[in-house]
Design brief:
With about 160 residues, the protein is of the alpha/beta class. The chain has one domain: L-asparaginase, N-terminal domain (Rossmann fold, 3-Layer(aba) Sandwich), CATH 3.40.50.1170. The protein is built from four helices and ten strands, in the order βββαβαβαβαββββ. Strand 5, helix 3 and strand 6 form a beta-alpha-beta unit.
């Protein structure tokens, strides 16, 4: 099974940019995670963009859809910022014949207490166990792309129903 990990930015990829503690989206954190973790999966990493999800546009989402559709893999992991992850998941819902899982982190992957590795691990497991469709995996939960929202006050994902 070949997995294509498409990195589009977000908190998961944020790094310190300067001495004033400003953060910028850096290199895909998923690359280091997959090298450091003892996993035995065939994963190709595709850095597509490096954007904070609050800056994500419909044109960016269309680029993500095109990247997923044109991937030779039918198992796609998308690392994404959490604030607009549900919008991108809904845009991807039209993709057929592929299992797509979006995940990210509430704290940068470079932080010791980040949820990034846990979320990526969960996403990899879901990719191997779910039929085609689009899902969000965050903090131990799996959400259908059309039935999820981020509650910013609670800083977590919730089902719409």
């Amino acid at each position: 099974m070949k997995i294509n990990a498409i990195a589009v930015g977000g908190t998961i990829d944020k790094i310190y940019f300067d001495a004033k503690s400003k953060y910028e989206v850096g290199e895909p954190a998923v690359r280091k995670m997959l090298v450091d973790l003892p996993i035995h999966l065939d994963v190709e990493i595709t850095p597509l963009m490096a954007k904070d999800s609050l800056e994500m546009t419909d044109a960016d989402r269309a680029d993500i859809v095109r990247a997923v559709e044109s991937s030779s893999s039918d198992k796609i992991l998308v690392t994404h910022g959490t604030d607009t992850m549900p919008e991108t998941a809904r845009a991807l819902a039209a993709v057929e014949g592929k299992t797509v899982v979006l995940t990210g982190a509430l704290a940068p992957a470079i932080f010791k207490d980040s949820d990034a590795q846990f979320n990526v691990g969960g996403a990899l497991a879901v990719l191997q166990s779910k039929e085609s469709g689009v899902y969000i995996v965050m903090n131990g939960q799996v959400f259908d792309a059309l039935n999820v929202r981020k509650d910013r006050a609670l800083n977590r994902f919730l089902s719409l129903d």
